[in-house]
User: What shape does this take?
Amino acid sequence: MVWNNVEQASLLRNVNNIATGLSFIGSIFIMYQCLRTPSPRSVTTKLILAIGIADFIYSVANLMSSYEDLGPTVSTLCSAEATLRSFSFLLSIFFASCLGIICYKTLSRGPNFEQERFFERSLYVGVLYCTVQVLM
Assistant: This one.
């Protein structure tokens, strides 16, 4: 489908803003629930919190795209949005993969899998990897 007139572009922008707002509220809810749990120190809760933070950053970047054509510093805003969007998208996928690995290792009852150590290393590697990918 081609969006070739002003009405359709306006509709698309409004739908994007509504979906982004829902994502924004959902990520805040996820972070609130993770911090509110009786055991916020568990590794799985930390990973879900990390995914919530990455999705929150992605929502902020998506909201920034609504204001790209309103100011004189379009290139600066576009660069900041692209950096945040790429970083948070990669980080979200990375942490979701780590959560899957922890679930698999827990269910398969592998020998001496240290979840806390895995999380700490994954956190450093994930942030470093995503930063390098965004800077390239």
